[in-house]
Design goal:
With 197 residues, the protein is α/β, with parallel strands linked by helices. It folds into 2 domains: 31-130, 2-Layer Sandwich (Nucleotidyltransferase, domain 5); 131-182, no CATH class. Helices cover 43% and strands 23% of the residues. It contains 7 helices and 5 strands; from the N terminus they run ααβββαβαβααα. Strands 3-2-1-4-5 form a 5-stranded mixed β-sheet. β1 and β2 (54-67) form a beta hairpin. α6 (149-160) runs antiparallel to α7 (165-180). The longest helix is centred in the N-terminal third of the chain and has 20 residues, at 11-30. The termini are far apart. The relative contact order is 0.09.
Length: 197
């Protein structure tokens, strides 16, 4: 607020501003969703909030829609919850549907289990795609040589950025061939097992 107002606000100023903004935010959160949405992007982040005289870490759930009319993004809503558990996602997604969000052509999110379960309940049958950023972050965690992380990230980004599926498949096959040669060394007698599909 100091940066916005040009002076150092008192705690009373902050409380007064918050009280004035709360009904505006509430009206925004409850507004009808009038635009047809072709694509839904959902994610969450943890933020520190003050509640009951304590500062706690809470999940901020966010939904972004891609409008069919012009292809532009719009923030559809947000919700502060105790965690990213399925019940919180399910409740948040239900509020979006109650505000007239129709079925999008596709939903993009991370692969968090609670979120996937909530999507199965609230948006059953809508195709789902894993977020490229989260996929890249997860893949990076499996690169054991630190000096290779940038190279692998660039390779994945080139696969994501191609114009068509056949080219993406070809680049993916080449990347798998290249990086399958780089194997970690396992202790003698240790057997690597893979989960059954």
């Amino acid at each position: 607020m100091g940066e916005l107002c040009g002076f150092e606000p008192t705690s009373t100023d902050v409380s007064r501003a918050t009280a004035a903004l709360d009904p505006i935010l509430q009206a925004w959160r409850e507004r009808p969703i009038e635009d047809a949405i072709s694509h839904l992007i959902i994610d969450a982040t943890y933020e520190k909030i003050r509640t009951g005289g304590q500062v706690i870490s809470s999940a901020l759930l966010v939904a972004i829609g891609i409008r069919k009319s012009d292809g532009k993004r719009t923030i559809l809503g947000c919700s502060v919850s105790l965690s990213k558990a399925e019940i919180h996602w399910r409740t948040f997604l239900q509020t979006l549907k109650a505000r007239s969000l129709g079925l999008p052509r596709m939903i993009t999110s991370d692969a968090y289990q609670g979120l996937r379960a909530a999507l199965g309940t609230r948006f059953s049958g809508v195709p789902w795609q894993r977020c490229q950023f989260h996929l890249q972050q997860n893949a990076s965690a499996h690169v054991q040589k630190i000096e290779m992380k940038t190279e692998v990230a660039s390779t994945l980004r080139r696969i994501f950025n191609v114009a068509d599926r056949p080219e993406a498949d070809a680049r993916l096959a080449a990347a798998v061939e290249t990086y399958s040669r780089v194997r970690p060394s396992y202790p003698p007698g240790w057997k690597k097992t893979f989960p059954k599909a």
